[in-house]
Specification:
six-stranded parallel beta sheet; Rossmann fold; four-stranded parallel beta sheet; alpha/beta; binds alpha-L-rhamnopyranose; 357 residues
């Protein structure tokens, strides 16, 4: 398996990233409103089946105007070219909870074979996704999970546990070991950020983090302006704040932009998850010492390969099934239909120029 992107990976992640997470994203699997979709445990897979050509897969990211999503779906497009499938991209301009529902309904009418979705809310999309599955459409959640009984598989960028712990480790290092920290998240409903924050809180409760105090979780809604204002608000409300941890590429870039042009530069650290191209200037000007991410293109790429494998009957989403994902190599489905891409990379002044995405 060749993954040049993953060179320089934090050793703390290596072990965690290779293990498929047993627990699904915490608190994200409740689904009271929709009936369960097709039962994947009873469907039989044919691992020897040929990959179908002409599979129509539509990508529905959280929102369209986010460079992170653009990179993700770019990987999906590339994979579908390799697989001779048909790529489509649709999506809302905001990441609010119900913004994706009408798009799913349209994709059902258009008879797509596969829907790839980064869910803005684990439950709001469920009735529509299960309607799609009832119509024979396979559903691949990627980046941000839908409730597990509304999709066939979930492509997780790294283990939820690993990402949550890493955020807290970064905060501890950058704070010097003690003091106030705040989280600047995406939307209050985002499955992925909420799962990471839950792990971060559990991690902060451990004795080695007793001197770090999480004073607030703020939400910038993955909107640049709102995130900028929330960062400003955090620093006004908490004058002793040492670190802003933003587990969102939109939030970290906005927070870094605010801090870099304020009197807090050099005093308040900004870290979390960002794309190297959006963060480069803030690493160079010293605002940001380190942050992490995976290669978003690989998520879309893996989602497309999983979608075609589902559509071809090679997999059904049951734990232990294996499928090949082109240049990324072979993947095995874990518990709850989860497929983990691999460990993230930590970026800093020493390595950031090696990455261009
Ligand atoms: C933002 C989105 C996305 C998340 C990244 C880290 O772009 O919220 O879902 O995975 O940040």
């Amino acid at each position: 398996m060749t993954r040049p992107f993953l060179t320089g990976v934090l050793s703390a992640f290596t072990a965690a990233g290779l293990v498929v997470v047993l627990a699904a994203c915490g608190g994200t699997t409740k689904n009271d409103t929709a009936g369960p979709g097709p039962d994947r445990s009873t469907a039989t897979a044919d691992p020897g089946a040929a990959a179908k050509e002409g599979v129509k897969m539509a990508f529905l990211p959280k929102q369209l105007n986010n460079p992170y999503s653009d990179i993700e779906v770019g990987g999906g497009k590339q994979a579908l070219e390799e697989l001779k499938g048909e790529y489509k991209l649709v999506g809302p301009n905001d990441a609010s909870a119900s913004s994706q529902v009408s798009y799913i309904n349209t994709l059902i009418q258009q008879r797509q074979d596969v829907i790839g979705i980064a869910a803005n809310d684990p439950n709001a999309v469920c009735p529509s996704l299960n309607q799609a599955r009832g119509a024979g459409i396979k559903v691949v959640a990627f980046d941000s999970d839908a409730a597990k009984d509304c999709r066939d598989v979930f492509i997780n960028q790294a283990t939820t546990q690993g990402i949550g712990e890493q955020l807290v480790k970064q905060a501890k290092e950058l704070s010097g070991g003690s003091g106030e920290i705040a989280i600047l998240s995406a939307t209050p409903n985002a499955t992925n950020q909420n799962a990471w924050i839950e792990v971060a809180k559990q991690t902060l409760a451990k004795p080695e983090y007793a001197n770090l105090k999480l004073v607030k979780v703020a939400y910038g809604n993955d909107d640049d302006q709102k995130s900028f204002q929330e960062a400003q608000g955090l620093l006004q409300s908490f004058p002793d704040l040492k670190v802003i941890v933003a587990p969102t590429t939109v939030g970290i870039a906005a927070a870094a932009r605010y801090v870099s042009s304020s009197s807090y530069k050099g005093k308040v650290a900004v870290t979390g998850l960002g794309t190297p191209n959006q963060m480069r200037a803030f690493v160079k000007d010293g605002t940001v010492k380190q942050f992490a991410l995976w290669n978003p293109a690989d998520i879309g790429y893996l989602a497309a390969y999983a979608g075609v494998a589902l559509s071809s009957g090679q997999i059904t989403g049951t734990e232990g099934q294996k499928f090949k994902a082109g240049k990324l190599g072979e993947y095995t489905i874990g518990a709850n239909g989860e497929i983990v891409l691999g460990p993230p990379t930590t970026f800093d002044a020493a390595n950031i120029d090696k990455f261009d995405f």
